[in-house]
Write a structure and sequence with these properties.
With 448 residues, this protein is of the alpha/beta class. It contains ten helices and 17 strands. The chain has a nine-stranded mixed sheet with strand order 8-7-6-5-11-14-15-4-17, sandwiched between helices. The protein has a two-stranded antiparallel ribbon with strand order 1-2. Strands 3-16 form a two-stranded antiparallel sheet.
């Protein structure tokens, strides 16, 4: 943390401000000042697995997601070891069982594991895939990591393929992401469902539909209110997996566990009707009339805090094999200068979405190849307010904004959604639990 960069006043490309842009990554509260309540078997634990052998792309030939550019065995090992460290298990089977038991016990379902017939929805972040045609070398989730997760659910956790749905209601999910899953001839792998914006003629594809009997209530700036609806694939599921990517966002700073669900809300009103979160852009960090600042109400909190979204999430996971500087289709993945000009080659995993996003923000905000946009100009969203939503979520029952976060509008306000803090410095990367404290974040690193 602690990097500051300013641009001199001058002509900017369309969409950039004409005044100086300042990137200030100094956390408002300083380092190692935890707030909120850690979640999970080991509260506030975030596992960061990194293996440079997993990523082999030369940056020029073909596409980064092709088989010759990702080592499947490395990805499998990274995912398995992350599950073990997250849960304190000694095997994949024990780890999945611990996850299900932990979730069910803390959500009033009893101390039990997965039960036959329960459905799981995996929300993937397909934001760059808004246009027709094939993938570009942008920041997508990889077919290899998607396959690893699905295979674990089927072969280890015992979830039937027909009970697994990969979904992004606001974007198409193209066959590129599904390629490794569909290539497995096993009946369960052929029965994995897809629910996306468009649907399709294949029997495993459906068009995502809203559940109009399940409102999500938002308070917007200016004392306005909005009501939106989650997809049926969520309300019909017993569990969700939040499959995000490690990536900045040109308008919101970062897009990880919380903002991954921007495409999970159906707006029945006006010109934005559909699975379009346009009203939630009122909380953007810049490029809007009143950019979001610390201490203001934030729509990301009731979004993930809703009982059918965060209330059903079994696992929070962010892929970072190849990372891009923003969400755009033309924003190509970049190497990290802080890693000796190598790919990030990582994944982050947690049961605590606030802790996961906090670690992701610390990592992203130290890498200039990500905080700068593809044309070299700084990302104006890195303006010191990008962790405001994490303050609100960590302290959801008594937030800095003094908001009453009640996404179901039933008179029950949210409790703390997790623990937030910033590390001590970018060299040691230690959080409070790493320093021997009994609260805060614990970052567990796995390196090969």
């Amino acid at each position: 943390m602690g990097c500051m960069l300013a641009l001199s006043t001058g002509a900017f490309s369309r969409g950039y401000p004409t005044e100086p842009v300042v990137q200030d990554f100094q956390p408002q509260e300083g380092p190692n000042k935890p707030m909120g309540q850690g979640q999970g078997i080991f509260p506030g634990r975030v596992v960061w697995a990194q293996d440079f052998d997993a990523t082999r792309w030369d940056g020029q030939t073909g596409h980064w997601w092709e088989d010759q550019n990702i080592d499947q065995a490395c990805v499998d090992r990274m995912f398995s070891e992350s599950l073990w460290k997250l849960t304190g298990a000694q095997s994949d089977a024990e780890a999945w069982d611990k996850l299900f038991h932990s979730f069910n016990k803390t959500h009033g379902r009893g101390d039990r594991g997965y039960q036959a017939g329960e459905r799981i929805a995996i929300k993937v972040n397909m934001n760059p895939d808004e246009k027709p045609g094939g993938w570009t070398n942008a920041g997508f989730p990889s077919p290899h990591m998607a396959y690893t997760m699905v295979r674990g659910l089927i072969e280890v956790a015992g979830v039937p393929g027909k009970c697994i749905t990969i979904t992004d209601s606001s974007r198409p999910i193209k066959d590129t992401l599904l390629s490794k899953i569909r290539a497995n001839p096993g009946p369960d792998f052929q029965q994995v469902m897809v629910a996306d914006r468009d649907g399709g003629p294949e029997p495993y594809r459906v068009k995502s539909e809203p559940d109009m009997n399940c409102p999500i209530h938002f308070d917007l700036p200016g004392n306005e209110k909005a009501v939106m609806y989650p997809p049926k694939v969520y309300t019909q599921a017993a569990y969700l997996i939040d499959y995000a990517v490690v990536r900045p966002h040109r308008v919101f700073g970062i897009t990880m566990s919380f903002k991954n669900h921007f495409g999970s809300v159906y707006d029945p009103e006006g010109k934005y009707q559909g699975f379009k979160p346009n009203q939630l852009h009122a909380f953007a960090l810049w490029d809007y009339p009143t950019p979001y600042k610390h201490g203001q109400i934030n729509g990301l909190v009731p979004l993930l805090g809703h009982k059918e979204i965060g209330g059903k999430t079994l696992l929070y996971f962010a892929e970072g094999l190849y990372t891009a500087p923003n969400q755009g289709t033309t924003s190509q993945v970049r190497r990290w200068s802080t890693l000796g000009d190598r790919w990030f080659s990582s994944l982050l995993m947690s049961q605590d979405p606030v802790a996961l996003d906090s670690v992701g923000l610390d990592l992203i905000s130290t890498e200039v190849n990500l905080t700068n946009q593809p044309d070299g100009r700084p990302n104006p969203s890195f303006n010191g307010n990008q962790d405001g939503y994490l303050h609100e979520a960590a302290l959801a029952d008594n937030p800095p904004s003094h908001a009453k976060y009640d996404p179901e509008n039933d008179g029950t306000v949210l409790k703390s959604m997790g623990v937030h803090e910033h590390w001590n410095n970018a060299k040691d990367m230690q959080y409070s639990r790493n320093l021997g404290k009994d609260r805060g974040i614990e970052l567990v690193r796995i390196t090969h």
